[in-house]
Every structure is written in C-alpha cells, then in structure tokens.
Amino acid sequence: xxxxxxxxxxxxxxxxxxxxxxxxxxxxxxxxxxxxxxxxxxxxxxxxxxxxxxxxxxxxxxxxxxxxxxxxxxxxxxxxxxxxxxxxxxxxxxxxxxxxxxxxxxxxxxxxxxxxxxxxxxxxxxxxxxxxxxxxxxxxxxxxxxxxxxxxxxxxxxxxxxxxxxxxxxxxxxxxxxxxxxxxxxxxxxxxxxxxxxxxxxxxxxxxxxxxxxxxxxxxxxxxxxxxxxxxxxxxxxxxxxxxxxxxxxxxxxxxxxxxxxxxxxxxxxxxxxxxxxxxxxxxxxxxxxxxxxxxxxxxxxxxxxxxxxxxxxxxxxxxxxxxxxxxxxxxxxxxxxxxxxxxxxxxxxxxxxxxxxxxxxxxxxxxxxxxxxxxxxxxxxxxxxxxxxxxxxxxxxxxxxxxxxxxxxxxxxxxxxxxxxxxxxxxxxxxxxxxxxxxxxxxxxxxxxxxxxxxxxxxxxxxxxxxxxxxxxxxxxxxxxxxxxxxxxxxxxxxxxxxxxxxxxxxxxxxxxxxxxxxxxxxxxxxxxxxxxxxxxxxxxxxxxxxxxxxxxxxxxxxxxxxxxxxxxxxxxxxxxxxxxxxxxxxxxxxxxxxxxxxxxxxxxxxxxxxxxxxxxxxxxxxxxxxxxxxxxxxxxxxxxxxxxxxxxxxxxxxxxxxxxxxxxxxxxxxxxxxxxxxxxxxxx
Length: 686
Hints:
With 686 residues, the chain is α/β, with parallel strands linked by helices. It contains 22 helices and 20 strands. Strand 3 and strand 4 (89-95) form a beta hairpin. Helix 7 (203-232) packs across helix 21. The longest helix has 30 residues, at 203-232.
C-alpha cells in the first residue's frame, strides 16, 4: 500500500464506505492523510460543578441526586438527571437514550463530558458522553481525540480507524521543504508532523505540527504566485488608452468630489493602463469606501478609446444592480457608450442578441457573472476585466480571455480589510492600491453591543424603522435547529420574528442551502422593499446595495470573527439615512466583551483587521477559520500572520538564489509547485 492506493485498499473499507469517502473528496490514501481533523476533544481532569461555564465543553464527576426521569414523545425521548458533587448540582439531559435510566440508576460516581448551555431554568449539560463506571475515563484522560468533518453514514470512529492505517503509508522522503528551512524554523520531521496532525500527544505537539504545514502552504502559495507572475505578468500592453475629456467632464459634473484616496488610486490605474505592460492591480478598500466609481472610471477609459471593458459580479442580482447603476450614469451624464448585461438565466434569444452586440463592438461595457468568459462570448476588442475577490482570476481565466484577443488589463476589487504587509504577500501577483478614506457624505453607523435582554427593545426599534419606510437585516449563525447548540437559527427565527412583527411587515429568510435562483429572488424582493426584514446567515456578506436598509442586528455575535462582523455591518449605512448595527450576545466572558467593544467604537475595517489579528494571535488553536480570500487547508492569514511573513521572506530568498528552483535541494518543492500550477490551470476558480 502507498499514498496513491485507493481508500478501498484499507482494511475495513468496503465499496459503500469508499463511496462515502469519495463524497468528501477522499479518493486515495494520500488524500486521507491530508484530511486533517477540524478539531480535537481534549479529555481533561473533571472540574467542580460550581465552576462550569455556559458555552464550554467540560468534564464533571459526581453522583445522581434524586430520580432519573424520561419524558417526551416516543420519537424524541428526553432523559433527565441531576448530578451532584461537593460544590453544587447541575441538570443533565440526553436525547433518545432512555436506557440510561437503568444504567446510571445503580449508584456510584459517574463522569460526564459535554457542552454546557443556558436554559430558562439555569445551566444545563446537554447530551454528554458517559463514563460509567468512572474508571473508564482514565483510558481517555489527558488525550486529544481527533474530530473530523463527516458526511451522513460515516462515523468519526470509522475515519479514525482509516487514518491510523493510512499513516503507515507515509514516506518521509516525500518532504517538499528544503532541509535548511526545516532546521531554520525548528520544524518537526515530516513523518512525525503528519502523525501529530491527527494524533498529537499534547497541544504543544499539535501546534508544532500545524505550524509546519501552515508555513508549507504559505510558502508553496507565494512561490506559485511569483513563478506564475514571472512567466505571464510582463505581457506587452497592446491597447492605446489616451486621456479622454468626457471623463474630466463626468468627474466635474458629479454631485460630490472624489476623496484624495480615490484620486490617487485612479491615477495609479490610469498609469497602468497607459503603460508598457498589461495591468494586474488589486484595489483594496473598506466597505463603502467608493471602489465602484473607480472601477467605472476604468471601464470608461477603455470604452471611450474604442475598446471594451467587462465587469464580473459573483451573483446575477449584483450583476443586474451594477448594470442598472452604470446605465443610469451613462444616460444621466451623456456618456456615449452602451452597456450590456449577460447572465446565465437569460433566454437563449436574449443571449444570442447580447453576443451579437458584444462581437460587433456596439456594447462597450459588458456586465455579468461567469457567463462573461464562456466559449460563446466573442469580444470585439476586450481591453479591461474588472472582477472582485470572489472571482480571483486564475491562469485558466486569463488564458480563456487571452484566447479572445490580446491579454486584457485585470483589476481586482476587494472589500476584505487585510493589513498591508499581509496583502503584499498574499496578492504577490498583483500591484496593490488602497482606498483608505471614506467619502464625506457617508453617515457613520451607530453601533451597540447588548445582551439578549435587549431583544424586545431591538424589535420595537426595528418596527419603528420599518414604519418610517426603512428595512432591516437580522443575521443568525445557523440554518437549522441543533440539539447541541443554542445559536439562533434562521428558519425558526424567521417564523418567530414574522409572528412578532405582525402581518403588515413581511419577513424573508435567506441561507446558503437555497439554490442560487431562490437566493437571487429573495435578494431582489428585499431590494424592492417587498421584504422589510431579512433574516439571513452570512450569505449576505457579499450582497447587493440596499440603501434603504438601516438596521443590522447580529444574533450570537460572539460566534463570528471581527473581520466578518465588520463585513456584515457593511450591508447597512449605504444610503442617506442614519444606520444602526446591534451586536447581540449571550456570552458573559470578558474576552467577548473586549472583542465586540472594538466594533462598538470603530467603523474602520483596517483597524478592526489589525485588532482581530492582535487578539486572536497564533495561539488560537481551535479558532481556525478561513479568511474568505484563499482556500487553505490549514493556514489562516490572520491567525498565522507571523508564519506568512516568514514564508514571504524565505520565498524571496529562495528565488534570489535559485530563480527557477532548479537546484537539487529545491527539486521536490519545484515538482510540487508545478503540479499545483497544473491543477490550477485545469480548475475554474469561479
């Protein structure tokens, strides 16, 4: 057996189980080795019942106090007991486990491990793991048990057994890190690090292993960018783009002045588009900083010089909004260009007519979704593509567009605030511009951090806003009810809120499990004020502008990262009305208060990103989240900023000494990067 063997070659994995692994993207033994746990159960010493806290998973030991009861329906029986130690008593409940009444009713010390939640009658431990007799806990005490993401029909235990076998196939000679880097940073040897990623002996061992692979991901990513940039970024600029008087007249006719930051970025873009090589530029600006007008100016420069510009949006609703806004500006300011909308849901006839106007050059500005780069679209003379971070342009997309003519200028717009030092490393294939100044006509959002006792007051405030013609968002972290989490969930919450608000207020529900067409329909209804209050998951983090929305209430705010909370808050404050953001939390911890107070007192996304980085730090072992920009398996740009900067420095040093990675010590690293680049060219990043 080797890492290329099918998972079906492992003992105990039959055809049915192999298909379940394939459903999770695990086809080979090597895939299984790289399928890292999403967290760990750490079996620590029992704590006194008087010290248990809401939201924490803890171990307690004690004896049954009073009788054990079983209630509920036949389909959902709830077993309840009270566990008592020398410091206090706590209520414990299990779902669908009535047999525990007989098992635990025999007396003696019981050890339970589970999550503590707050119910109406106080703290409750929900559905804990049972160790009876108590001596059984000794087998797991002080161990870290991996917890894997699963699919229906596959148990965590089955994955653990398969991974243990797969680890026997690990070949230490496949380590891609040059020896001098491993020594420089004190990394564990490859084979040991892989084992510690799944079955660490301690937190410290896991952190050491994780740091090694996070660093490796960053190093490979940065080197890949640099090598791709060297091979393609020096493409000659074949487009003659002269300054046009119509643009100056347009700017002087606007009812506001561009900020100094917008003017600076516009100068940088203009210099790129008029320079000797094609532009590859990232414009990074906080929510509401005015990136769209800069993108429009870039499209005008292309269109007024006889070329075409394309603007790609992540959803059809957003594409349509961009189209309507651009058409409005072209007409209002007498600009002699025609805009075209192209989306997947258009009829065959509509698409055919749009293709004709695009290929003839009649349409100079084309707005749409990924349909913009499909085979049937032939451009008359495409000089510029404006995209956003949801559509980072990979090699595949650049080749697709290059095949339609000369390599166009690429402008990437990002509203994700990243400290500049990290952005320079992450977007190494792009030049970076930053709009770090808000337009003067923006009214700052008023923020408040409150506990759940404020909810009724918040509902009254929302009713008042709706009565004045405004609209509201409510964000919940979950889609459906969970037996183990108290987080507000979208579907039940929207039904409850609809009853609370009354029949004259229309409450909508939006979440990621809906089909795109359904999501677009709900967002379109909200944009037209057919829905007054929208209850949603974070799927609206990147959404359309609804200037009429003035209230954002985020339930369980403690469950989101600061940067994500700031992005969500950016859905309001987009019109001429005062807007409000209510961060609601059930947590009483000082750490939560400190985090949310940062949002309470600042609307500056770059400051918030820096504080998020400072507070979380590299020690946040199980708070690993994706940045929203890049899909790393292990690494996180905020949590692992130090590793990212080290990888950036090392990448620069490696390429200075060995620009093509042809030296023997870099050969395995080069082979791995070449494979990654080939995969990128085969995949679509849309």
